[in-house]
UniProtKB/TrEMBL annotation:
Subcellular location field: Endomembrane system
Domain Protein kinase: 1-154
One term under GO cellular component: plasma membrane
GO MF annotations in UniProt: ATP binding; transmembrane receptor protein tyrosine kinase activity
Gene Ontology BP terms: cell development; cell surface receptor protein tyrosine kinase signaling pathway; neuron differentiation; regulation of developmental process
Pfam families: PK_Tyr_Ser-Thr
Record's protein name: Src-related kinase lacking C-terminal regulatory tyrosine and N-terminal myristylation sites
Keywords linked to the UniProt accession: ATP-binding, Kinase, Membrane, Nucleotide-binding, Receptor, Transferase, Tyrosine-protein kinase
Major localization class: membrane
Length: 168
């Protein structure tokens, strides 16, 4: 395995990678595991181009759908949902927020959302992907999609792009 590094890749490839991350996070969601540190630095890409979610140092198994951390817990603020940053309340939905930031990082080639301006992307980001990001950043956690829904959406978008570019 090697760490995801800055590389120029197509939107199609980025979607394939993000779909794999969503699938991995859906696996964690099914097991009531909150990662709490989902970011590009914690995605490994194998020689076979399979993406793996890594670094479970902050991960927790949750009960009652929410894990409340102590006030002294250090968290990656730039990727952290408002309820987690303000009240130390982590859930699968706070990981979904982080996934939206990760998706933005991928589509903008390493930029962070809201670097002094509104979260705007270049024309290389399809509008349906941007819509997914916005859904991930819903202020109310219950309004954010599940990782299963994200995987399904990304898989569908990827298939449309893939079959449009591959001659049969």
């Amino acid at each position: 395995m090697r760490v995801w590094t800055h590389r120029v890749v197509s939107v199609q490839r980025e979607l394939f990678d993000m779909d794999q991350v969503a699938e991995g996070m859906a696996y964690l969601e099914d097991r009531s595991i909150v990662h709490r540190d989902l970011a590009a630095r914690n995605i490994l890409v194998g020689d076979d181009l399979v993406c793996k979610v890594a670094d479970f140092g902050l991960a927790r198994i949750i009960r009652d759908s929410v894990y409340t951390a102590s006030r002294n817990t250090k968290i990656p603020v730039r990727w952290t949902a408002p309820e987690a940053a303000l009240h130390q309340r982590f859930s699968v939905k706070s990981d979904v927020w982080s996934f939206g930031v990760l998706l933005y990082e991928m589509m903008s080639r390493g930029k962070m959302p809201y670097e002094g301006t509104a979260a705007r992307l270049s024309v290389r980001c399809p509008s349906n992907i941007y819509r997914i990001m916005i859904d991930c950043w819903a202020i109310e956690p219950s309004k954010r999609p599940s990782f299963h829904a994200l995987h399904s959406q990304l898989d569908s978008i990827y298939a449309k792009i893939y079959f449009k570019t591959v001659e049969v």
